[in-house]
User: Fold these one by one.
Assistant:
Number 1:
Amino acid sequence: MSILVDESTRVICQGITGRQGTFHCERALASGTQIVGGVRQGKGGTSHLGVPVFDMVAEAIEVTQANASVIFVPPANAAEAIIEAADAGIALVVCVTERIPVLDMVRVRAHLKESSTVLVGPNSPGLAVPGVGTLGIMPQGIFLPGAVGIVSRSSTLTYEAVDQTTRNGLGQSACIGIGADPVGGISVSQSLQLFMNDDQTQGVVLIGEVGGRAEENAAEFLSTLSSYKPVVAYIAGQTVPEGRRMGHAGTIVHYGLGTARTKIEALQDAGVRVVSSPMEIGSVMAESLGR
Amino acid sequence: MFLFEYQAKAMMREQGIPVLEGIVATSEQRALDAARELGEGPWVIKAQIHAGGRAEGRVGGSEDLRGIEFSNTVLGVGQTAARMLGKSLVTPQTTRQGETINAVYIEPEIRSELQVFLAILIDGERGEPVCLASVKGGSQVERDIFDDPKNLVRVPLGATNQVALSVGHEVASQLGLPSSSIGAFAELVQQLHGLFVARDLSLIEINPLAIRSNGSLVALDARVTVDDNALYRQPAMGALASRRDQSGAEERAAKNGFNFIRLDGNVGTLSSGAGLAMATLDAITHLGGRPANFLDVPPVLEVSRIKEAFLLVLSDPGIKSLIVNVFGAGIMRCDTIADGLLLAHLEQTVSIPLVMRLAGTNAPLALSRLERSGLDIQFAPNLASGAQMVIDAADSPPAPRQTDSIVGRLTQWFTWTKEGPRS
């Protein structure tokens, strides 16, 4: 078993006919992900990449029994796409779209409070369960089915952690990029909880980033558990000057909250092994698992 | 996108928020006129830059001139403006080079017993805007709040388009404001939230907000950040952005959609993805090196954009070596990076040592092209060794290199791109 995605996951892609949607769905299909359809308003009734295209998510569900969706629509329409999928009853929504206005995501979050849909993202590389499927844009060929759960706030750094745990033979149970936007769906803490409850996962890599309070909250969450699987963390941006922005809105360090130091201390207090260099993620995880 | 104080105040004035009459001056003469137009002194002269911490900042390396100064005489206003304009202001929130002061903002000086910090920003964890406030306003607010978080009042605002006046009453009562000011304060919170939502802001802040003895309020400073992702539906904000003051390099970066920040070191960096770019900086710093820049190139298909990224990093005369750390994924392929470097080399000979850490999509193809380029390139199997290599390269004196003709290099490039990968 793994988290969020398994053999029964049937995926549709909202925005399948676009350049990004086409590129990544083609690769996902080739690697065995069950993509059963796509949605693009105005192209209902056609087919693309060998799967049927629908005008609406609800129609797609009716015909294909889809229960997951990956979203590649442009930023101005992405919030509506998430809400449409949730309202139609999709259980898992992965939103890859970046540059969605933050107030649109405030609206989405308020809407999802009333819903059981799990949202991954936006501005997320998505979710990969090695050997089962890839929802999003994570590269193929670097994964190895195995023991380590990876939860990350940073897309490209996710691949770094995957690469290291593949090279040292640990492999991954699942890899989830929660997205780099200030307001998103599933949190680091919620992801940790899924990994703690998952039989296949023996240890977890947490990749954090300066800004926000996700890591502090994760530390608080771990402190409430009587015992937990080994967690190795790396916080990106230890050299970011305060008040400056490095690529993500999420990295604005406001009012002394959410600096690398506060995050590292909180995680260490909770018993997490925090590596000071991104190069040590794989080796320290192996050591923690006694390999 | 960070607005200048005077732009933020103009926006607030339009909304009916109490701000002082102020005048922007770009010359000593204009500053003198401004002081006279604003009536009796004393006046405050404030450097207009896109960063905070001005009251602690130093202008042009001088010990006695800060980014915010006061004067009792018209002549003094002119002299202070003249000493600020064209100079660089270094604050705790700028680089060591600081930001050039192209304008000063002149206002009457207001004294008040009570100075409040008030801000609305997004609380990412809750997924909604939050109002932050403290009665310990002023330039030390960040330190005060960090030392004693209890000083900070925090009231969530929900996903609504208009907050009730009761929200402002709640903030005011938690702050313990005098009752004569509470009505105006509640209205102010509503107005700030209105601007926040209508203009797609990610931060609106008044620090300090003066509360005078008669209970009236006035915003002494204003800070506004617009959500860059919403500029497409905020044409007025976009127009301000096009006039914003940026260093040449940062402007070039913005034009190309790169996230670029110039730092103080001698090791150039180029990465794709903000996380990997930050990790590259962390790895270099961790091993004792000094990064010269942060550069996150978003995934692109066009070789010309990658070429621009290389030219941008190489435009810094201070860099002694360059590391490229790219994990090819999605539409970003390693061979695009290689071709971009070769094109940049055609335009401007690359003579510093390069360290390439390329992994993921089409990495072997990229390596085969670069191996035959004649450039001084070391290939790093991982970030750890790459960071060490690039630091060592920056510290050792450059080997003398022969420069070949543009035609020779052009021919070479065509050969590389036509031949494709070696099997």
Number 2:
Amino acid sequence: MRPATREKLHSLPVDDTIVAVRGVDKSYGSTEALRGIELDFPRGRLTSLLGPSGCGKTTLLKIVAGLLDADKGTVMVDGKAVSGPGPERAFVFQDFALLPWATVLRNVAFGLELRGVPRGERDETARRYVAEVGLSGFEQKYPHELSGGMRQRVGLARALCVDADVLLLDEPFSAVDEQNRRKFQEDLIRLRNTQNKTFIFVTHSIEEAVYISDRIVLLSPRPGRVSQIIEPAIDRSGDPERIRRDRHYLDTVEEIWQGLKQYVD
Amino acid sequence: MTLFGRRVPAMASLIFWGVLWEIVGRTGIIFILPPLSDVLVAAVDLVRQPSWQDATVTTLRAFLIGMALAIGFGIPLGILMGRVRIADELLGMWVNIFSSAPLSALVPVLMILFGFGERTIVAAVFLFAIWIIVLDTRAGVRHIAPSLIEMARSYGASRPALYGKVILLAALPEILAGIRLGLIRGVKGVVIGQLLVSIVGYGALFETFSRNFRMSQFWALTIILFGFALLVAALIERAEARIDYYAGARE
């Protein structure tokens, strides 16, 4: 195996890029959240945005989602400039954002419901994704009857259900307990291999980013800027448990930690 | 409540005051207070009379129309204030003033505007009930987690879907609380309106009873009205309890 490699921006061929961020600035009042962000997200890969709090990683993800407008610059998805949310992108929320009055099945099908897909058809699709995230048998439960980990599985199934090309995940496991988080990370690796989708994943956990990502974008805070891009060369084909003992995994975690240490208050 | 170390059932205080009323009434010290038993007899007698039945129909109709208008205008106004900052800043002060102002003072103005009839009563119910509905709806909308609205937007919700499928339902517990309080205030509105107009419905009855010192009928009518107000509140509370099972879990 190769050691962790660093590469320059734009090293990938252009036609492999699904999401392109070009010169994005964003301020909240006098606070500069993002400055001059230039990023390419390769198709079919899992890219993490990693950084300490205040580095604007969630802001960047929401700009890509079309939930926030950039002050300057553009986001292109499949060559088209983003002006708002679109069906080719689906969002997974940190606090799950489930409808408390709706069953698991209806929550999962909600994206399709909003698109006007008929009841029978969308329920059938939703059932498939409920099973995909391992929640079969819970279709008629309500969110408050589920654990935090199960709720986020519902959020993930909802995002898969609309069949978007790009999945945007905003610290999806931060409100989930440790055991569930590990299980989730393993499932995400499996989903990435089977679903053929592009994942953009925001996290503040170095271990999590290294464990799941093909590519890690390190952001530095105040203002948020791209400081480094890392591609951990970790073989994820075998037993997911083994990755956590992999030497490259441990080395990459250490290397990123050394780089981020200076931002710790 | 406990008394001398024993638990006393909730109804006990009601019985205590009932017995006290009966005793004081029988001594005849205060002429406006006949014994409770007389009042209950009068109540049974009262509900049989066509004058009471007509008054009840008139009162109920004015109450229901006024409430329907208050709910129909109050909820949209509350949602507007909860969502649109400029609407909140323009209207917030007035809604707060009206929700705590002594609105009885405005009923004479309503009489000038709407005449001495049912329309004034409807307007009084509306005026008494709407403000708390607006305030609670606004609070409910403000209380919605921002991520729920982002979720709806990111999955492509149209504006009607965003309001109909997410915002209205997410704010429903507070809206129902507002409606419950609004109904109680609406009962006040209908009574005060009718008393001031005094030729319509219960107002006319109250006027007749008190002017002729028919105290047992007067108290019977009062008890019926209190009972109605409590019944309405209890019904809404039951509906709320059914909604609460998710409201409590929505954090």
